[in-house]
Design brief:
The complex is a heterodimer of chains A (about 150) and B (about 270).
Chain A: E1 2-6, E2 9-13, H1 21-28, E3 47-50, E4 53-56, E5 69-71, H2 84-91, H3 101-114, H4 120-126, H5 138-150
Parallel strand pairs in A: 1-5
Antiparallel strand pairs in A: 1-2, 3-4, 3-5
Helix pairs in contact in A: 2-5
Chain B: E1 2-4, H1 9-18, E2 23-25, H2 31-38, E3 44-47, H3 52-55, E4 57-58, E5 61-63, H4 68-72, H5 77-84, H6 89-92, H7 97-103, H8 111-116, E6 120-125, E7 128-133, H9 134-137, E8 138-140, E9 143-144, E10 151-156, E11 164-170, E12 181-187, E13 193-198, E14 205-206, H10 208-215, H11 222-235, H12 246-264
The chains are: A alpha+beta (about 150), B alpha+beta (about 270).
Chain lengths: ~150, ~270
């Protein structure tokens, strides 16, 4: 049995073997936002924030997430409005098939939390671990650069 | 599968003494790939990433659980440069310097720095501590001298570490890439130069002849720099694999070693 905080809510889960945090989020905790794709930390579609750090949840042994604070894409928007990062991606056409989008949103949220006014190079470096097959990244980077420009 | 979460180093050492067959888990960036894709199912895992003693970084001692992210924003120039080339932000906030040593991959990105710096590896078991020079610790590709009942506690750097140091890596893109060749050059004020390379031999390699030649040059001429590159290329021991050819690795090793030398010259 593990206890963890997910999006501010105390949760318990019961990983019985070598499951990853990703598997537990999706299959035990009803949070399918983080996506399962490469399972080797290459694609970033499973990105979550754990204890303030951006991580691939597929590479976190669920049992080792005991006692941590996890934030997933489900915890990004508020109850009545989507987050500014999500809004910016929609406005710039930064979402096509959408599979990578949860990971991109979480990585971008983490970037803006640590660096409110990133340069384009910093945006590209911050997203270096998130693969998108559709957009060619241009519209994603433009979306986040526009958001950075709005930061006073 | 049983996962142990020891709260401090003593608990962790007791756990590994009780079961030397147990698998040690730090950041998970190597181990979990084996679990997810190769069906690895360790009977018992000892998870060490949150052990306070292993997270310490005090002066010359860097704890085994210090992440690449912390190295990247830390004060040691070439080590920070090397850490920044590891994976992606996600990988850097999980992977650790102790994990790089535990895995002992020839392509471990922090290893050329540790070799060039003449770092020592601190190991501890319930019965005592061992401190091994890096080249006695790393014994081959993915092989090292850690005994089953020991944990890698951290890395000890020499008291005097010259400020003139640089690291570079060759790969197909900036992020998420395993080195085709990597190199670290450290040069002292008196000209003493140390150069180490990764991914071009079974372990990190020090190019000793190149070091000796260039250390004698107080202001290396064009000819001396070219000779330095030639000697480095001659001393590496690359193989051809799916990432590159031995010929290209040899050539690129000479080229980046020379560029790094020029970066550390006054």
């Amino acid at each position: 049995m593990i206890r963890l905080s997910v999006n501010g809510v105390a949760r318990t889960a019961d990983p019985t073997g070598a499951e990853s945090l990703l598997t537990v989020l999706r299959e035990q905790l009803g949070l399918p936002g983080a996506k399962n794709a490469c399972e080797q930390g290459e694609c970033g579609s499973c990105t979550v924030i754990m204890d303030g750090e951006l991580v691939c949840s597929c590479l976190v042994l669920a049992a080792d997430a005991d006692g941590t604070e996890v934030r997933t894409v489900e915890g990004v928007a508020s109850a009545d409005a989507i987050d500014a990062v999500q809004e910016a991606l929609l406005d710039a056409g930064g979402v096509q098939c959408g599979f990578c989008t949860p990971g991109i949103v979480v990585a971008a949220r983490h970037l803006f939390a640590t660096k409110p006014d990133p340069t384009e190079d910093e945006i590209r470096e911050a997203l270096a671990g998130n693969i998108c097959r559709c957009t060619g990244y241009g519209s994603i980077v433009r979306a986040l650069a526009a958001l950075a420009a709005e930061t006073p | 599968m049983e996962t142990l979460l020891p709260r401090d180093l003593d608990e962790a050492l007791a756990a590994i003494a009780a079961d030397p067959e147990a698998t040690v888990l730090a950041g998970g960036t190597d181990l979990m790939v084996q679990v997810n894709l190769q069906g690895l199912r360790p009977a018992r895992v000892i998870a060490i990433r949150r052990i306070p003693e292993l997270r310490e970084w005090v002066g010359r001692f860097i704890g085994a659980a210090v992440t690449h992210r912390r190295l990247e924003i830390g004060p040691i120039k070439a080590l920070a440069e090397a850490a920044r080339t590891v994976g992606s932000p996600q990988i850097r906030s999980a992977g650790t310097i102790g994990g790089n040593l535990g895995t002992s991959s020839p392509a471990g990105d922090t290893l050329p720095f540790l070799a060039a710096a003449d770092a020592e590896i601190v190991l501890r078991s319930r019965t005592g501590e061992r401190v091994l020079p890096w080249d006695q610790f790393i014994t081959g590709p993915k092989r090292n001298a850690r005994r089953p009942d020991e944990l890698i506690v951290g890395v000890r750097l020499p008291e005097h570490l010259p400020a003139r140091q640089a690291f570079a890596k060759v790969g197909v893109r900036n992020a998420m890439v395993i080195a085709i060749t990597s190199c670290c050059v450290i040069r002292d004020e008196d000209g003493t130069t140390r150069v180490a390379l990764g991914s071009v031999g079974p372990t990190p390699i020090r190019a000793r002849q190149a070091e000796e030649m260039i250390s004698a040059e107080t202001r290396p001429s064009e000819a001396a720099r070219a000779e330095f590159a030639r000697l480095v290329a001659a001393e590496v021991r690359p193989i051809t694999d799916h990432r590159s050819t031995a010929e290209y690795r040899r050539h690129a090793s000479g080229v980046i070693a020379r560029r790094l030398l020029e970066r550390v010259l006054p």
